[in-house]
DNA sequence: GTATTTACGAACGCTCGCTATCTATACTGT
DNA sequence: ACAGTATAGATAGCGAGCGTTCGTAAATAC
């Protein structure tokens, strides 16, 4: 009649804690292999304890043993070294966009095993499900990971995502997408925990992980639409579920959110489409400008920034206006959040320094502590990377025995 | 030659963990006393373990024993009940304003033991230090707590506070205040950890604690100046140190922050002084209005709201304008943070429903998820209460053995 | 080939928590 | 008033785990 009370504290919990401590120490130094002596030092445990834990973890498949490596020749008997066995629990990240599906498979140690991207011209919701399945299989094959090994999946979807039910609201681009239960579908393909989150959130997570360290990060995804993810000390801030929806910030003193419209005022004002439209108008008004030369009839967002980079005053004026509108919209949030850094990603980020400097100048006039303003180094992989990252976090949180006390109330 | 590595895991750490679990269980149900059987249930530990832990905690003075209480008559041998011995580690909260010093002493269980307030007409920095000392002694005497028992102190100061150095920047009201090392001074009076924080932050902490539960809270302090504190799942968000400075949000499309000016655009637009000024102007323009009647020459902020509550259209127009400006300034942050609730405190909060409804109407037009909009129930005690709360958190975090693993990177 | 250095492995003793049993105390029913 | 019962507290024995100590293995240095 074992009561089955997990979480109470007997000596077996002590063992679990210590094993977890060892595993955690190995994880922290991944992918570098560690000697037992180093583990002893890092965990503060006694050698036999660590040795026993390592044995256990080797048996369970979490660690792998390395032969004494050639380079590390020193005095005395060579030490056995262990490292994370990444294949123990690989994870899968999924980025679903209206025109593109990306799947990444990652090591337990965070090494990317495969990354498969497929583009297409506007799928229907049903077609999309099929494509997702195919791309997942492709990525698994490339990573040489059997489907049943996958330990966790995180999927990214545009729109506002309800963390718990896994439903998506407010998706404009794919008709019928919000009716689909993506989580259920993926769980049908891969029998493991599946989570769904906003793409801007996941991109933010990836960027935060890449920058490392603590602090507050505001990561803006700026393309046709505008969204932002907030990461505070490594953890996502979700609010009640719709945090970071900067696209709906009002830009004009008379702006009002129209619940029917899936795009917000700021998106309409400075989304990539709007920038292109501004550029076209400016080109029409100044037919002799470099901007008009570059762009022609189907002038693009990129043309605007290219012309501005070449110091065309007409294009510079457009960029100035965009930067000003964006900075004025973002400044209140910067004041309130006081982030360590603001990182801009997404399609518009390709504009580069031209835009960044203009925003920086404007933001400096409107804030107290001026956060670092950067461009995302991850480009289009940010979302998948963030999804894999979150899946990894999930696995670790599940496998590393609970930090002792997480009572109710 | 004990290596002194605390944090590693022997059986003695197990004991510490379990003792902490018991103490934590008692704390959670404070101030209600608990029977040992209840502790067994809540901690999941065995009875002898709990009994031993209780003995230890009784010896150490953290718990006190209650006789079997009269009301609780039931079958069987009456149980011994234990509760937190609040006097084991009382804490002190300190609210320093330009015209008022407030000191509160609190139980370990969160019971208020004393609260002393002293007002004066604009002290100098030096005088202020003297007053602080006097009021602290008064509060200690009233609480019947010797100074050396105080386990932690948290002081609240207006302005932006550097958490680590304890220095204050940007304080307008008290000349020379930012040069004072308040922490050092208080530590001279009371030999214990002393922390300093922004008053809006601490008020937010108190309000969050009063509301209970998790989620994101945006607590606005609205008086002559405007500040806000952000509490996410019970923990303060500080950003790089200046989070929540909503007073500096631009209200006009041409507004710019002037680093020389200690007040920001929003404060100048809707701070209590500005509201009074708007009221006076409106009264001049409409001498026959109820507003003009009520206020006369030295028309006050309160008069504006009073007249508006009596449905005076002139006053209502002023309130409408204030609400609109405030809501437009706050909306971006509400979109980004997506808080569970927005609570308004400070002097202007006395306006009541008139203002709240007007803001709510405006905010509804500008946000996606509409947070609950409430008035602070704590009134002027919010800051001291929050300071005591934070001091308590500090004590608990220090005394409850660390949750096992908090290694460095 | 010997000495030295480093790491692995095994045995012992200690502390701790859990299970089970026994004693103490007060209410309840006849 | 007295026996019965239900609940709480105290004690003994058992098992598990960690830490310390000692002995052994495997490499390098001289």
How large a portion of the residues of chain A is in β-strands, by DSSP E? Answer: 15-25%
The helix tally of chain A amounts to 13
| Overall mean confidence score, pLDDT of chain A | 88
Largest sheet of chain A: 5 strands, mixed
Q: Order of SSEs of chain A, N→C?
A: HEHHEEEEEHEEEHEHEEEHHHHHEHEH
Structural class of chain A: alpha/beta
Q: Round the Cα radius of gyration of chain A to an integer and report it.
A: 25 Å
Query: Distance N terminus to C terminus of chain A?
Result: 28 Å
Number of domains of chain A: 3
Question: What overall form of chain A do the CA principal axes indicate?
Answer: elongated
Instruction: Name the assembly state.
Output: homodimer
Low-confidence stretches of chain A: 1-7, 403-409
Architecture of the largest domain in chain A, CATH level 2? 2-Layer Sandwich
Biggest interface, which chains? A-B, 66 and 67 residues
Number of strands of chain A: 15
Q: What's the helical proportion of residues of chain A?
A: 40-55%
| CATH topology-level fold name of the largest domain in chain A | Nucleotidyltransferase, domain 5
User: What is the top-level CATH class of the largest domain in chain A?
Assistant: Alpha Beta
Q: At the fourth CATH level, what is the homologous superfamily of the largest domain in chain A?
A: ATPase, nucleotide binding domain
């Amino acid at each position: 009649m074992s009561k089955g009370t997990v979480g109470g504290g007997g000596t077996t919990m002590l063992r679990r804690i210590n094993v977890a401590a060892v595993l955690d120490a190995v994880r922290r130094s991944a992918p570098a292999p560690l000697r037992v002596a180093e583990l002893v030092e890092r965990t503060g445990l006694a050698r036999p304890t660590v040795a026993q834990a390592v044995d256990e973890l080797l048996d369970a498949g979490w660690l792998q043993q390395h032969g004494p490596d050639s380079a590390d020749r020193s005095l005395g008997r060579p030490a056995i070294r262990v490292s994370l066995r990444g294949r123990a629990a690989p994870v899968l990240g999924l980025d679903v966009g209206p025109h593109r599906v990306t799947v990444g498979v990652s090591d337990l140690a965070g090494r990317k095993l495969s990354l498969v991207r497929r583009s297409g011209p506007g799928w229907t919701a049903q077609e999309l499900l099929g494509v997702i399945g195919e791309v997942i299989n492709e990525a698994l094959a490339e990573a040489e990971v059997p489907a049943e090994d996958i330990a966790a999946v995180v999927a990214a979807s545009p729109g506002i995502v309800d963390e718990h039910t896994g439903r998506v609201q407010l998706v404009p681009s794919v008709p019928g997408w919000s009716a689909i239960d993506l989580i259920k579908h993926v769980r049908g393909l891969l029998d493991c925990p599946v989570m769904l989150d906003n793409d801007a959130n996941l991109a933010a997570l990836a960027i935060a992980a890449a920058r490392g360290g603590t602090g507050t990060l505001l990561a803006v995804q700026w393309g046709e639409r505008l969204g932002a993810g907030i990461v505070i000390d490594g953890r996502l801030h979700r609010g009640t579920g719709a945090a970071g929806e900067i696209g709906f910030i009002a830009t004009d003193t008379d702006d009002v959110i129209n619940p029917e419209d899936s795009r917000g005022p700021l998106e309409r004002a400075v989304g990539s489409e709007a920038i292109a439209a501004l550029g076209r108008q400016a080109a029409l008004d100044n037919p002799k400008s470099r901007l008009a030369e570059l762009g022609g009839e189907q002038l693009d967002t990129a043309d605007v920034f290219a012309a501005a980079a070449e110091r065309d005053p007409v294009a510079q004026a457009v960029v100035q206006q965009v930067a000003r509108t964006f900075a004025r919209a973002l400044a209140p949030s910067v004041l309130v959040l006081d982030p360590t850094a603001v990182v801009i990603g997404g399609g518009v980020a390709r504009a580069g320094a031209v835009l960044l400097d203009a925003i920086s100048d404007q933001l400096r006039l409107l804030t107290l502590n001026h956060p670092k303003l950067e461009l995302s180094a991850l480009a289009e992989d940010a979302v998948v990377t963030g999804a894999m990252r979150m899946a990894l976090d999930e696995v670790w949180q599940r496998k590393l025995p609970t930090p002792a006390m997480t009572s109710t109330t």
